[in-house]
Each structure stands twice: as C-alpha cells, then as structure tokens.
Amino acid sequence: MLRTAILAAVASAAFVAPAMAADITGLWLTETNGGQVEVSRCGNSLCGKLVTSDHIKTDPSKKDVKNKDASLRTRPLKGMQMLWGFSGGPEKWTGGKVYNADDGGTYSGTITMTSPDKLKLKGCIVAPLCKTQTWTRLK
After folding, report:
1. What is the pTM of this model?
2. Cα–Cα distances in Å, from 74 out to 71, 78, 87?
3. Cis amide linkage into residue 60, ω under 30° from 0
C-alpha cells in the first residue's frame, strides 16, 4: 500500500513539473539596463512589455528616442511592447519580433525556456547575425 502511494506521488510529480516549467508568463529580468519585462499571452501568441529599467528609474518619462521610426520616438519606454507574435511552446517559441530600445531596431526572435527560471531570448537581423540574452524570472 505504501509503495503504491509513493509511486502515485512520483508519477503525479512527473506530470506537474513539465506544466510548471512550460509557463513562461511572468516578470523577467533582462541582462542589460536592469530591464524588467512582463511576458504574457496575447491571444494565441506571447508578448512582452517593458515594466521598468535603469533608464526608467532615472527618468520615468524617458522616451523611445532611438526608434528607427521617427513617429514613435516620443512614446514612453515604460509599458512599451517589446516582444510580440511568438507562437509555439511549451519550451520554444518562434516567429516573433523583438524590439531593442538601445538601438531602435526590431529583430526576428525566438524564446527558449531552459529552466522554470531562465529563458534565452535570441534576436536576429538575419541568421547568423544574432544576439542572445539569458533572462531570469523575477516572479
């Protein structure tokens, strides 16, 4: 009886762990500028908005001044959508776009969850011209 209970507990834990690991939604710390990005579901895809960064902490009214589209240079960085259009899962999402306010560029991206608390975000102009960051879950 005890053996059956232990096997049942182990089996149920095996099914629960992948489900928790697959939940990419939440608040993530970027590698640069103390950025914090809230990743959420947007319909059938993933998106992410900038919650805060070192620039925003210094000046909450900081604008997207390096955007390649001059008409967007007056929008605030805080709350700006910087990830959109990612599909897939539970561990890898592709087909999305990544906006980088540091250079004003938009790149093709992939997101890979390497653990429940780490993800790799890759942005490419064209392969192999890519940059990858590892983000850490805050909550």
Report:
1. 0.80
2. 7, 12, 30
3. no
Structural domain spans, the chain: 2-137
C-alpha 97/C-alpha 85 separation (Å) is: 6
Q: Terminus-to-terminus CA distance in the chain, angstroms?
A: 39
User: What's the pLDDT band for 22 if we cut at 50, 70, 90?
Assistant: low
Average pLDDT, the chain: 86
Please give the class, per CATH, of domain 2-137.
mainly beta
Residue with tokens 């095996």: 14
Rounded to an integer, what distance in angstroms lies between the CA atom of residue 38 and that of residue 126? 26
Which residue type occupies 45? S
Output b/e per residue, 84-103; b: 16+ Cβ within 10 A: bbbeeeeeebeebbbbebee
